[in-house]
Amino acid sequence: MENKKAVSFKILRGCFTWFWKVLKRYLNNCTIHGVKYLVSENCLYVERLFWLLFCVLSWWGCAIVIMDSVSEYNEYPVDVTSDTLYVNWETPFPSIAVCIKSSNKLKISYQFKQQPSTLEFSSKKQGVTADELLKAYQSVQIPCTEIFANCIWNNVKFDCCKEFKPLNKTGIGYCYAVNSKHFKPHDNSNIKFWINGTTESGNFVIDLIANQTTIAYIPRYISVYILDNLQLPISGTLSEYIITNMRKGCSTRIEFVMVPTFNEKPVQSSLIKQRNCRFSHEIDKDSMYEIYSTDSCAIEVYTQKMIKYCGCVSFYYPVPAGARTCNLTELVCLSENKKDILLVTNVNKKCYPLCEGTTTNVYHGSPIEYSDVDDDVIRIDFISLSRPLVQYRRYIVRSLLDLIVAVGSALGLFMGASILSFFEIPYWFFLRRDEIV
Fold this sequence. Notes:
single chain, alpha+beta, five-stranded antiparallel sheet, 16 strands, elongated, ion channel, ENaC, sodium channel
């Protein structure tokens, strides 16, 4: 037993001796400054201690600089500034959505005390199936020709129903929208709703029919939204983007100022966590939408929470693959868990802001009577106060090349090392080891 231990110790000692000889020769011949004095036979122990102290301090300083450079690259690689070179800018006009939230027929038939779009359900009826509710949802849909009387873009009339297209369920009812990128293809319109140096500003006027058929809906069940082209009208849409102050025979003027966002090409190659935003083409594999937006992500969060709490999805929302629509009894479950389902913090944790898009500052006016507005219409006049004079520009502050240069500079400054210094390691440890005695 003792002989085996002695043999093992001898082998271990031989390996350590061989490794020390290889390391000693490497330190004597490598290009890293100062290390050859640590093993030089011509140096006294005091000299070796001197070089060891300052080599350690130098390596420590190098490590700190490199860690700071890596940290800045990971945490602050992207920044945003503002530009004012607006001569050649071309900015899309906001998307306008007209949404029918509910109907008298739907509320009376199923005794909903609140709007179904708010997930507030309270009904004494029993045994109403999901299919019946989906059929009832059809009663919310009004044909486009019965909603729009006139549409005007920069003093040019056009057919409203050729431009306003139905949106998929977003949780607030049945919507018609124009100039939204959620349509495929979104740029096949005959009218280009853009603002540039030629148009100077944009003016979009819509007249909603307010006759005996639709007056029951407008404005009680109809809301109009002014959104960015990538946004969707959802329950969490801020009130400043919702126009509810409408009156028959009057015109409501909505003024706004737009600030577009421009992204330099290298920004797309950075990680989502680094730039803290997401581009519209960066969708998840199991997403219900072909375009990413914060709103589409929020809808998916809501539906997943509905499935978690109640095992189904409201008939006002799109249903993911493998899920089903709730019946009337299960809608009560949604109402009981409404706060947790629509919790804003759930959306903030899961959904990144958009890297693209336009920030719109909206100013609401009050309905005013005009002689050119018919008594049987409700006019909404959207007008940009001017073309965008400022835009946000997102750019790369620290690229991967900047990180490489910073690390290389630190290695050169503190250690006198270069990339070739690292190739010396396999050279002296493996290629020249045959000369070790």
